[in-house]
Each structure stands twice: as C-alpha cells, then as structure tokens.
Model the fold of this input.
Amino acid sequence: MLVLVAPGQGAQTPGFLTPWLDLPGVAERLSAWSDVAGLDLVRAGTEADEDEIRDTAVAQPLLVAAALVSAYALFEGPGPLHRQVGMVAGHSVGELTAAALAGVITDEEAIALVRARGLAMAEAAAVTETGMSAVLGGEQDTVLAHLDRLGLTPANVNGAGQIVAAGTAAQLAELAEEKPEGARRVVPLKVAGAFHTEHMKSAVAALAAKTGQLTPADPRIPYVSNGDGRVVASGAEVVERLVAQVASPVRWDACMETFAAHGATALVEAAPGGTLTGLAKRALKGVAAVPLKTPEDIEKARAAVAGTAAAAEEST
Done:
C-alpha cells in the first residue's frame, strides 16, 4: 500500500519552489492560488528570504501550495492519485493539503483556509513570545514527564525518538539548559509560535468561523488524522479535526502506527519533502520512503508507486 503524506511548518527553505515552476501548468496554478490567498506564492517560494517565509501567515499557504503541485505532478492529476494512493495524511498544516488531496475540500478552499489559519495563528503567536523545540532521543515517558515539570506542551509526538515541545520563550530556555534524561539534543525550530497548544485557542475560533461556510465531501481515499492516527471516513469530521488540531498536539507516531497496521509498503512525502520521510525511515522499517524535494525526485517516487502497484497485483 502506498501512503502519501504532506509536511508541516518548518519544512520550507528559501527558494525551494523554484525548480517546480519549470513544470507545465505550475506557474499558472500558483498564480491562481495567489489570487485566492491574497499572497504572491511564487515570489514567496522563489525570492523571499528565510525570515519572510518563517512568518506563519506566509509559510503555511506556501507549504500547502507546494505540496499540492508536487503531488499532482507525481500522479499527473487528482484522478490517478485517487486510484493509486492507499492512504493520505498530513503533519500539522499538512492536514489541509491531505484534505484537498483526499477530495474533502477543493484546492481553492484549502488555500483560502490555510491563509486564514496562518493569519489567525500569527496573531495568536504575537500575544506572548512563544516557540517550539525538538527533543531528540530519550525514553518517551521520561521526556513527557520532564516537559510537564517545565510547563511545556508535547505539541508534536513524532515517534522515532522525536518529541517537539512548545511553550513560552522562558520555558524553552529552561529546556535548553536542562535536557530530559537520555535526550541527545534540544533543537529550536524555525517557527513563530507555540503551535498545537493552548496559546492557539483564539486561532481555533477564527478557523471555525471560516469552515462553517464549507460543504465537505467524504474522503475518496482513507484519510488518517494526525490527532490520534485514526482513519476518518466523514468529510464533516475531517473539517472539525482540522479546526481542533490548531490547538491540539500532533500524534504523528500514531499515524505511522496506522500506516504499518494497514500494510504500508511505500511512503511518498510531497514537497518540500524530507522531514516525514526521515521519521519513516527510522520508525517504518522495510517501507520505501521517498521525499519530493525537486522535480528530479519524481521518477524515483514513481518507481516506488509502481512497485507498490505490482506488489498489490501479486497478492490478488
């Protein structure tokens, strides 16, 4: 079974979108989505510097747009994607990408929602100086207990020995000085706030108001929620979860457990790929994991897709 995943905030780097613009139709599609977002996505992904694309209101729509164009380039459209992908999921803001890829919402609705999400989260983050840091290594229970003592939230439980802590700047500084027992490193992340925590409650209300205008469809392919790793069959519930996860922890470890339980044999990460495939390579042994970083990766990803299809035919 093939799993298609979409990365979350922090995966972006300056100029990462540039090579994708050489593909037919990508510039036109991004231009249309820029009008929807009220943001020049092409400029953001090609000319903007690191500080500009760290801005939550810019980073989030940029990531969703890039993941969508790379996924459609790989499968040559939504139809083949729906036929060949066995499961879809997204990490944090990547869930909006996943919802569009699964047919729950349209691409244009995803772009409009992610722009509203990014603006609301940026506004919430401006209230208090907050951030996020990745804790690498250590026993999960030990790390979680340490974060609790410091008043930090385990905003992303990513599996493969990685937990992302979120909280105030003072709390994160204390974490950097006092690592959990067994942890190798604490790495500050390039994000502008404590996402997936109580600091984002005002953004939940703002996004709920936007989603109330939608008429979601049920997923055309199995959609795995990053809130708990459960497969969600109702489009209305997918949208409810998209809203709630803004202030709730991401359980990517549970998502990977679901992929394994359903017989995943290959995983492709949409652009800008790398983070989730890295986790998969450590936690999903025997699963071919391919990141889409540039269009040059498409052929390798297609080989993984073809291998999954051939294995499925042999088993029938």
In short: The beta strands are 2-6, 87-90, 130-137, 153-159, 162-168, 183-188, 223-224, 231-232, 266-269, 288-291. The chain has 14 helices and ten strands. The domain at 130-188 is CATH 3.30.70.250 (Alpha-Beta Plaits).
